[in-house]
Design a protein that fits this description.
- By secondary structure, the chain is mainly β.
- It has a single domain (2-115), classed as Jelly Rolls.
- Helix content is 0%, strand content 52%.
- The strands form four sheets. It has a six-stranded antiparallel β-sheet, with no helix packed on it. A three-stranded antiparallel β-sheet has the order 8-7-10, with no helix packed on it.
Length: 124
């Protein structure tokens, strides 16, 4: 698995239309606020609770029993782990596009919160 500030990732599948990653996120770990222009980003939580904020939409608490959250292409989003999290992250290319691993535009840095209750989407 490849190390990240917030945990680790492992590529499970990659082709022109679909990119699937296993992600393990430490308690309090969060990704950068970012967007993808040419692919949607889905989160399927296997264990734990992942808070996902999507600009223009409500914040969602994603757990193993709540199904999958899909973030459409072009929406700024960010996750933070409210517990230790194991999840599958799925990227699907928009029609007539291919999955580009570099299709990410970041607006902040990743990190780890000492207390996820202090999470501030616009301040992290």
């Amino acid at each position: 698995m490849a190390k990240k500030i917030w945990g680790a990732t492992e590529t499970l599948h990659l082709d022109e239309q679909l990119h699937v990653e296993r992600i393990d996120v430490v308690f309090g770990g969060y990704c950068s606020r970012h967007l993808h222009n040419r692919k949607c980003n889905g989160f399927l939580v296997l264990n734990g609770v992942l808070l996902v904020h999507v600009d223009g939409r409500e914040t969602a608490y994603v757990r193993a029993d709540t199904g999958m959250l899909l973030v459409p292409a072009g929406f700024i989003h960010q996750f933070v782990a409210l517990s230790r999290v194991s999840a599958v992250e799925i990227y699907r290319a928009k029609p007539d596009e291919i999955v580009d691993r570099d299709d990410i535009h970041r607006f902040s840095e990743s990190g780890i919160l000492d207390d996820p209750a202090t999470y501030d989407y616009h301040g992290s």
